[in-house]
Specification:
With about 375 residues, the chain is an alpha/beta fold. The protein is built from 12 helices and 18 strands. Helix content is about 35%, strand content about 25%. It is an enzyme of class 1 (oxidoreductase).
């Protein structure tokens, strides 16, 4: 069977790998002329790692992952540790370590495994037609390609989603701006093998270790959308937003490189349940755009890839039927996680100040069990649960 995938992100390439392993002919089209991952790194939780393990990439993803043994919350202003605990109970519960990884390194690894020659860059999709027997992708340069199946893995601004739904759902601003990037691991910022998060005032500063002796960092600040984005102002603005915060936060601000730091206004999309139309289906952010507050966006795209490949391999009533079965296995799980991330976002960023203060107060007596239970709840229900 011939499959066209629109989008060469993590979801599209994971789906391409899963389908190629089953003997399908897969071609990926990507609208950008150079693949540049959005964001510096990703929290690849155990369910996402399991999907890559299933694709035969156990050693490759382990090599990219940071050694994250523990987790801590720190009061942003006083610098006092609120709670600190091992992540080993999480690992033992779900059977796989999580790996914070560089987005660029993960993307490059997936591209190399899939085969860069089968990815066509600079190809902007303009239209899709489906005659009931085959589906055709039409591109801005006049090129077209026909296949048995077309998968829209073209992200939160998906063109394929508009074809399936007949309209584009509105993106919802989550209320905060995120700055993220990479710095060298340093003990005067945080312990080298710990995910450390400073919290206060509805803001968040976090560092987690990735391979190569680097921390992935991010700063969250509740702000109106549409403010000017000027790289030369990043450090000045962060110093003002985090004025009076503890020394490690100030040290981190001093060490970021504005030229390699990303600034993102965070959005999501209200969950919707229709992912398919004939021989066309959605995957990843195109089908379930989420905030990053529970770290499941990329993991859910990888889960999609495994379920999609399995559905096309094991169901024999036709492509359209297999795609609907894929949709129906995935849409409720991803909708639940989008809403779970939204709820976590609102607590973290003080949508209701009293609720957020109650969360801060509880962190001082937290032994880690409640937090781990919440993370495990996100991981459980994945298609590779033993």
């Amino acid at each position: 069977m011939k499959v066209i995938i629109i989008g060469a992100g993590m979801g599209g390439l994971s789906a391409g790998l899963a389908l190629k392993r089953l003997g399908h002919e897969v071609t990926v089209y990507e609208k950008v002329t150079e693949i540049k991952p959005v964001g510096a790194a990703i929290s690849l939780w155990s369910n996402g790692v399991k999907c890559l393990n299933y694709l035969g990439l156990h050693a490759q993803v382990a090599a990219l992952g940071g050694q994250m043994d523990s987790m801590a919350y720190v009061d942003g202003l006083s610098g006092k540790t609120m709670t600190e605990f091992s992540l080993q109970p999480l690992v033992e519960s779900v059977g796989q370590r999580p790996y914070p990884v560089s987005r660029a390194a993960l993307q490059q690894m997936l591209l190399e495994q899939f085969g860069a020659g089968a990815v066509h860059l600079g190809m902007a999709l303009t239209d899709v037609t489906d005659d009931g027997h085959q589906v055709t992708a039409h591109f801005a340069d006049g090129h077209s390609d026909t296949a048995d199946v077309l998968i829209g893995a073209d992200g939160t601004h998906s063109t394929v989603r508009g074809y399936i739904l007949g309209q584009q759902p509105e993106r919802r601003y989550a209320g905060y701006v995120n700055w993220n990037g990479l710095v060298d691991i340093a003990q005067d910022i945080a312990p080298a093998q710990q995910w450390t998060t400073f919290v206060g005032q509805g803001k968040r500063v976090s560092v987690m270790p990735i391979a190569g002796g680097r921390f992935y960092f991010f700063f969250d600040v509740p702000l109106p959308k549409g403010l000017a984005n000027v790289r030369s102002e990043y450090q000045r603005l962060l110093r003002s937003y985090f004025e009076g915060w503890a020394t490690p936060v100030q040290t981190l601000i001093d060490r970021i490189d504005p030229e390699t730091t990303n600034r993102v206004e965070i959005h999501d999309i209200e969950p919707f349940m229709t992912w398919t139309k004939g021989r066309v289906a959605l995957l990843g952010d195109a089908g379930h755009s989420t905030t990053p507050d529970i770290g499941q966006g990329g993991c859910q795209a990888m889960e999609d890839a495994i379920v999609l490949a399995t559905a096309l391999q094991t169901n024999t009533l036709g492509v359209e039927d297999a795609l609907v079965r894929y949709q129906n296995r995935r849409n409720q799980r991803t909708a639940d996680l989008v809403l779970r991330a939204r709820k976590r976002c609102d607590v973290t960023h003080a949508k209701d100040a009293a609720v957020t203060q109650a969360w801060y107060d509880g962190l001082w007596t937290e032994d880690g069990s409640n937090i781990i239970r919440g993370i495990v709840a996100n991981i459980e229900g994945n298609p590779l649960d033993a």
